[in-house]
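Duplicate of #3305? Posting structure anyway:
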C-alpha cells in the first residue's frame, strides 16, 4: 500500500469566501444584535467627543478622558464580538444558542484576548514601520487570533500569536487574497449604500431629524453586518488551516 506524506492543501480563495458566505447567511439574524452593540461601543467615544462640543477635523483628540473611554469601550466591544463569534460557531454548526455560555466563555478568555490583541497591534505597527511587508504578513496571520483564543483556549499572548502565524503561513497568499477580495466587495457595497443614502436624503429633505435617525440606524446595521461577515471569514480561515495542518 502506498501513500503520500505531502501536506494537505487548504481551501482555495473561492472556497474560503464561499464557506464564509454560508456561515454569514445562516448566522446573520442571530448574530446581528451582538454586532450592533459592538459597533455602538466603538462609537461611544466619538459620540462623547461631539456631544462635548468638539470636532475631529484638526486631528486626533488630546483629551485624556476620550482615550480612557476609548480603551474601555474597545475592551467591551472585543468582549461582545467574542461572544458573537461563539454564537456564530454554534449556529453554523446546528447547535442551540446559549447566551449565558457565550458570555461566560468570552469573559474567561477576555484577559488573554486583550493582551494578545494589544501585542498584535504593537507587532503589526513595528512591522509596518520597519519594512512594511512584515507588518502586512503579521496582519493577515492575525485574522485567526480570536478563533485561536476562543476555540483552542490558547490564552498565552505570545503563544497565541505564534499559533496564528503557524496556522496561516502555509496558505498565506490564499488567506490574503480572500481578505482583500472580501474587503473590496464590501467597499463597493458601502459606496453604493452611501450613494443611496445621499439620494434618499435629497428626496426626503422634509423628514429632517427623522431621516437622520433612520440613516444612523441603517449605518450601524451595515457596519454590524461587516463585523458578522469578517467573523465568519475568520472562522472559515481557522477551520481550513486546521484541516490542512
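Output from current build:
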Amino acid at each position: 500500500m502506498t501513500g503520500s506524506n505531502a501536506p494537505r492543501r487548504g481551501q482555495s480563495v473561492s472556497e474560503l469566501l464561499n464557506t464564509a458566505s454560508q456561515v454569514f447567511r445562516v448566522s446573520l439574524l442571530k448574530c446581528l444584535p451582538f454586532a450592533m452593540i459592538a459597533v455602538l461601543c466603538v462609537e461611544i467615544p466619538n459620540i462623547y467627543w461631539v456631544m462635548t462640543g468638539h470636532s475631529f477635523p484638526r486631528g486626533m483628540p488630546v483629551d485624556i478622558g476620550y482615550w480612557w473611554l476609548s480603551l474601555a469601550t474597545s475592551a467591551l466591544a472585543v468582549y461582545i464580538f467574542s461572544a458573537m463569534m461563539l454564537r456564530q460557531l454554534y449556529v453554523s454548526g446546528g447547535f442551540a444558542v446559549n447566551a449565558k455560555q457565550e458570555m461566560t466563555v468570552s469573559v474567561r478568555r477576555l484577559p488573554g484576548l486583550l493582551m494578545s490583541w494589544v501585542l498584535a497591534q504593537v507587532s503589526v505597527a513595528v512591522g509596518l514601520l520597519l519594512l512594511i511587508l512584515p507588518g502586512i504578513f503579521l496582519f493577515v496571520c492575525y485574522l485567526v487570533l480570536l478563533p485561536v483564543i476562543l476555540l483552542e483556549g490558547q490564552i498565552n499572548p505570545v503563544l497565541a500569536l505564534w499559533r496564528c502565524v503557524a496556522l496561516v503561513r502555509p496558505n498565506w497568499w490564499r488567506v490574503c487574497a480572500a481578505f482583500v477580495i472580501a474587503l473590496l466587495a464590501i467597499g463597493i457595497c458601502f459606496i453604493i449604500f452611501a450613494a443611496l443614502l445621499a439620494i434618499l436624503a435629497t428626496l426626503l429633505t422634509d423628514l429632517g431629524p427623522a431621516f437622520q435617525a433612520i440613516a444612523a440606524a441603517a449605518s450601524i446595521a451595515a457596519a454590524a453586518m461587516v463585523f458578522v461577515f469578517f467573523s465568519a471569514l475568520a472562522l472559515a480561515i481557522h477551520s481550513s488551516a486546521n484541516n490542512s495542518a
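Confirmed duplicate; merging threads. The chain has one domain: 13-244. The CA atoms of residues 167 and 242 lie 7 Å apart.
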